[in-house]
Design a protein that fits this description.
61 residues, mainly alpha, 72% helix, 0% strand, transmembrane helix, membrane, transmembrane
Amino acid sequence: MNVQLVIPVTRSTPARAIGLALTVLVCLAVMWLAVGWIGAIVLVVELFVLGRLLLRAANGQ
């Protein structure tokens, strides 16, 4: 008998927020190690702009 545990991950769950935060931190660390502070700042701006664009597209605006 197999037992599967399914955890729904929606936009508002803590697991999604923690995963997103870890992903952002890893991306920033890699960018900082690769090209320094300027690269990390550029990545933050790009992620912010792209995130806003994706949210606007998802909402049909």
